[in-house]
Amino acid sequence: MSHTIEWKTRVYLFEESRTTKVRVELDTGTTRLTGHGTAHCNPVDEDVPEIGDELAAARALEDLAAQLKRFAYGDMVRIGAAPREVSLMPYSGWMNDAVG
Fold first, then answer.
1. Given a cut of 70, is residue 91 above it in pLDDT?
2. For residue 12, what are the β-bridge partners?
């Protein structure tokens, strides 16, 4: 069985006072999810906006991924297929929002 669909995403980046915030919106056609991420520039570090963009976007995408996992796990439970994976965090030790 072949299956092809298109999911639409939008990424919004906002920077103010050495803080970058990102909102990622996903529209699957049946579900809409929004992920959020933030990055703060350490006051003693050089302000490089691209780094804040990358970190905040990565964190927003990770938030979105965790939401997708929860939806998938819920769907699996509803059809009687218990999920094998229990962690919603992809990496141990990952810090969601390091403030410095």
1. no
2. 23
Any residues with CB less than 8 A from the CB of 80 and at least 6 apart, and which?
none
Mean pLDDT of all residues in 27-54: 93
3-state helix, strand, coil in the chain (%, to 5): 30, 25, 45
| Residue 96 vs residues 40, 85, 100: alpha-carbon distances, Å | 11, 20, 13
Q: What is the pLDDT of residues 5-25, one digit of tens each?
A: 999 999 999 999 999 999 999
- In the three-class reduction of DSSP (H, G, I as helix; E, B as strand; rest coil), residue 12 is classed as strand
Q: Exposure of 35 by Cβ count < 10 A (0-12 exposed, 13-18 middle, 19+ buried)?
A: buried
Token pair of 39 as six digits:
């990055």
Q: Which helix (H) or strand (E) holds 62?
A: helix 49-78
